[in-house]
């Protein structure tokens, strides 16, 4: 049979299909929020489970208390006297602080703490209860070792010491002590506080009192160890200095005796020493200079006197001699010359007095000549004496020089002995002074560190941090829930949004219908308001579907509209009911033909009961067309019901009687809506599509897979039926979302379908 005469609208082009490829769009914020809202109970379950696990772990965990001691490496030096110490003060630097941290962690110091507090017998450190670290602990220790090797961790975990028990199961005292020290080191944390010179000793234990006692004991033992080390070093220095002083004293006495003996021998054999001979030689040199000067002066006087005597006579020589005798004679001659001059004025030359004076003057002149001759002889004698003295001094000098040479040869040995004695004396005095200083230091020693904060028993445990663990557990549970949600969404191939459906199928989405919540209690006004708002949005989506089918741009709207889906329970029957409602709102007479013989729902939806004469009776020939009537359910809405059948549904629809029925209904009503079964898996839909002017494929958000919708559209398109578009039901729409409208204004009046939804 040819196509029906009332189909005047041209068939649309075959739908453009994208082969069902998944969406390549970037996930937007709305999609993420929608995914979280859909899986909110999964996220809540993960959070609750994580919280319960954390609570259970906290209930089974023993509390751990931390007690801290702070030790300051003192850089200030106390100087009571300016005496250098045997053990110098610490030159504090980061390397020094690291070394002191290592000292605090040493097994020697911790062993003394174990002995002091008798931790071997303490139940908290029972060596018989020590267990070998498990696999997780070993993995953690291995990770810490790797971190320490690259410098991200300072403390390296120490492996458990080997402790072999005897056949009776008991440990030796040393093995038990080693196990206790190992436990103590694992529970002890020692580190530098920031960039300061403060070392923090932190002890963890299940008993707060024990943690404080151990932390204080470690700090006290460290201070005592410093003092004991200094005292021991000082005492060793004193003992060594004492023994050395005894040896030096004997060596000094021997050296000094050797010097004294050599000096005595030198004085006895050579008549003096180098210093005495040198002084004598200096005096002789001065004496020979004086003698040489005296000789030169005597020679000069003698030469001058002889020259004057030879050239000018005795009178001239007398001026050069200037002896006391000549001086006395000159004085007497001058007195006589004055007396003669005085007498000459009163007496004549022949006067006896004058003559007596002349005789006296002649005697003086003869005496003067004799005195001059004597003076020259004295000068000659003085010259000879000066020469003899100079010669004697020169001889003495030569003799003294020889003695000095002999003494110099023997003084080399004396100098060696004196230097040896002097060096020994200096060493002895230095050691003696150091011995006295060190002896005084023994009575005053101070450590290089001091405790600035004493450990106190903590009032609350540091681990486990209950609030933090619970918060972290809840946070991780939320992260796990969100991750599970995203994984679930990534594995979910169902369609969620209209754009996704349109992108996958290449067919226009005619309407998006939200999911309507189930009716709530009448007293819940908020629920009733929400339901009413969703119903309004639903009704607006139906109007968009109506507008797409009755678009004025088309030459003629379709008379027969078939609604089908890619799977069961996608909402075809409810959508057909809603479409009939919005079509009747604009004055059209609409009939819904129940074409789903496998699962008919229209009678149930409209609340009517099937009669004995249904569509099945007409198609099987048990009733004629006049007996199959459309039942009026609402204003301008009629339905044709069908009974459920499964085996021969395709056979019933493929006959001419069904086509005749549709032709008759098309002539009587404005629009005929076929509620068809899914296109996949049954042949009914392909047969029904042959009588439809437009086919609408319905998909359900969150349930229908994209490839199923594509396959359904391909199947319908292969039969030549026109696919007008798709409808997506159960779409999640936010509370503030407004329905997308077209150019057609929405009517203010609600349809009867919406009124029924809101009154429910």
TrEMBL record:
<feature type="transmembrane region" description="Helical">
    <location>
        <begin position="468"/>
        <end position="487"/>
    </location>
</feature>
<protein>
    <submittedName>
        <fullName>Capsular exopolysaccharide family</fullName>
    </submittedName>
</protein>
<dbReference type="InterPro" id="IPR050445">
    <property type="entry name" value="Bact_polysacc_biosynth/exp"/>
</dbReference>
<feature type="domain" description="Tyrosine-protein kinase G-rich">
    <location>
        <begin position="414"/>
        <end position="490"/>
    </location>
</feature>
<dbReference type="InterPro" id="IPR005702">
    <property type="entry name" value="Wzc-like_C"/>
</dbReference>
<keyword id="KW-1003">Cell membrane</keyword>
<feature type="coiled-coil region">
    <location>
        <begin position="238"/>
        <end position="346"/>
    </location>
</feature>
<dbReference type="InterPro" id="IPR032807">
    <property type="entry name" value="GNVR"/>
</dbReference>
<keyword id="KW-0175">Coiled coil</keyword>
<keyword id="KW-0472">Membrane</keyword>
<keyword id="KW-0812">Transmembrane</keyword>
<feature type="transmembrane region" description="Helical">
    <location>
        <begin position="41"/>
        <end position="58"/>
    </location>
</feature>
<dbReference type="InterPro" id="IPR003856">
    <property type="entry name" value="LPS_length_determ_N"/>
</dbReference>
<dbReference type="GO" id="GO:0004713">
    <property type="term" value="F:protein tyrosine kinase activity"/>
</dbReference>
<dbReference type="InterPro" id="IPR027417">
    <property type="entry name" value="P-loop_NTPase"/>
</dbReference>
<dbReference type="Pfam" id="PF13807">
    <property type="entry name" value="GNVR"/>
</dbReference>
<dbReference type="GO" id="GO:0005886">
    <property type="term" value="C:plasma membrane"/>
</dbReference>
<keyword id="KW-1133">Transmembrane helix</keyword>
<dbReference type="Pfam" id="PF02706">
    <property type="entry name" value="Wzz"/>
</dbReference>
<keyword id="KW-0067">ATP-binding</keyword>
<feature type="domain" description="Polysaccharide chain length determinant N-terminal">
    <location>
        <begin position="27"/>
        <end position="117"/>
    </location>
</feature>
<keyword id="KW-0547">Nucleotide-binding</keyword>
């Amino acid at each position: 049979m040819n196509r029906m005469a009332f189909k005047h609208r041209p068939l649309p082009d075959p739908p453009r299909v994208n082969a069902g490829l998944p969406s390549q769009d970037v996930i937007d914020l709305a999609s993420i929020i929608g995914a979280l809202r859909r899986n909110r109970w999964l996220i809540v379950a993960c959070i609750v489970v994580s919280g319960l696990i954390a609570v259970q772990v906290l209930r089974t965990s023993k509390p751990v208390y931390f007690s801290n001691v702070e030790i300051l490496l003192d850089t200030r030096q106390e100087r009571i006297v300016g005496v250098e110490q045997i053990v110098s003060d610490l030159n504090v630097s980061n390397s020094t602080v690291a070394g002191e941290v290592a000292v605090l962690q040493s097994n020697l110091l911790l062993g003394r703490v174990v002995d002091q507090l008798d931790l071997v017998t303490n139940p908290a450190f029972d060596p018989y209860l020590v267990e070998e670290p498990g696999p997780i602990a070993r993995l953690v220790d291995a990770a810490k070792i790797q971190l320490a090797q690259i410098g991200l961790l300072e403390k390296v975990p120490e492996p458990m010491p080997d402790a072999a028990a005897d056949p009776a199961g008991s440990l030796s005292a040393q093995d038990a002590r080693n196990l206790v020290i190992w436990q103590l080191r694992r529970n002890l944390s020692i580190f530098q506080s920031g960039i300061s010179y403060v070392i923090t000793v932190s002890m963890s234990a299940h008993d707060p009192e024990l943690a404080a006692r151990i932390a204080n004991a470690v700090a006290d033992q460290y201070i005592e160890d410093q003092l004991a080390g200094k005292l021991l070093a000082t005492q060793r220095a004193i003992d060594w200095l004492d023994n050395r002083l005894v040896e030096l004293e004997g060596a000094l006495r021997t050296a000094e005796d050797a010097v004294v003996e050599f000096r005595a021998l030198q004085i006895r054999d050579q008549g003096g020493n180098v210093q005495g001979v040198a002084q004598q030689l200096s005096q002789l040199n001065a004496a020979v200079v004086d003698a040489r000067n005296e000789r030169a002066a005597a020679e000069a006087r003698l030469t001058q006197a002889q020259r004057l005597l030879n050239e000018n006579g005795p009178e001239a020589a007398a001026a050069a001699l200037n002896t006391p005798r000549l001086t006395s004679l000159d004085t007497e001659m001058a007195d006589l010359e004055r007396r003669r001059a005085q007498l000459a004025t009163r007496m004549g030359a022949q006067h006896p007095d004058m003559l007596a004076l002349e005789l006296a003057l002649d005697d003086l002149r003869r005496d003067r000549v004799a005195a001059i001759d004597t003076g020259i002889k004295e000068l000659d004698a003085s010259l000879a004496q000066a020469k003899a003295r100079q010669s004697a001094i020169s001889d003495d000098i030569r003799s003294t020089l020889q003695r000095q040479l002999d003494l110099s040869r023997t003084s080399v040995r004396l100098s060696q002995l004196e230097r040896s004695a002097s060096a020994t004396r200096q060493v002895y005095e230095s050691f003696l002074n150091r011995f006295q200083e060190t002896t005084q230091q023994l009575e005053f020693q101070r450590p290089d560190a001091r405790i600035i904060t004493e450990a106190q028993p903590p009032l609350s445990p540091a681990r486990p941090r209950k609030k933090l663990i619970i918060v972290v557990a809840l946070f991780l549970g939320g992260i796990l829930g969100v991750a599970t949600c995203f994984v679930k969404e990534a594995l979910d191939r169902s369609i969620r949004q209209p754009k996704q459906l349109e992108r996958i199928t290449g067919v226009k989405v005619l309407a998006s219908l939200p999911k309507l919540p189930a009716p709530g209690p009448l007293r819940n006004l908020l629920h009733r308001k929400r339901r009413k708002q969703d119903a309004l949005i639903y009704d607006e989506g139906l109007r968009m579907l109506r507008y797409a089918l009755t678009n004025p741009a088309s030459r003629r709207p379709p008379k027969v509209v078939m609604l089908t889906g890619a799977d069961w329970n996608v909402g075809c029957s409810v959508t057909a009911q809603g479409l009939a409602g919005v079509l009747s709102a604009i004055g059209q007479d609409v009939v819904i033909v129940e074409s789903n013989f496998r699962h008919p729902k229209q009678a149930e939806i409209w609340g009517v009961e099937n009669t004995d004469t249904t569509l099945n009776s007409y198609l099987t020939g048990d009733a004629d067309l006049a007996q199959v009537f459309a039942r009026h359910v609402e204003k301008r809405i009629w339905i044709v019901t069908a009974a459920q059948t499964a085996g021969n549904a395709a056979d019933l629809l493929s006959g001419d009687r069904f086509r005749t029925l549709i032709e008759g209904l098309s002539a009587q009503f404005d629009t005929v809506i076929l509620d068809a079964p899914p296109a996949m898996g049954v042949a009914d839909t392909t047969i029904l599509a042959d009588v439809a002017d437009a086919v609408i494929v319905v998909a359900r958000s969150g349930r229908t897979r994209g490839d199923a919708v594509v396959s359904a559209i391909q199947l319908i398109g292969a039969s030549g039926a026109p696919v007008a578009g798709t409808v997506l039901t159960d779409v999640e729409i936010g509370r503030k979302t407004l329905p997308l409208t077209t150019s057609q204004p929405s009517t203010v009046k609600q349809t009867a379908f919406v009124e029924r939804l809101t009154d429910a």
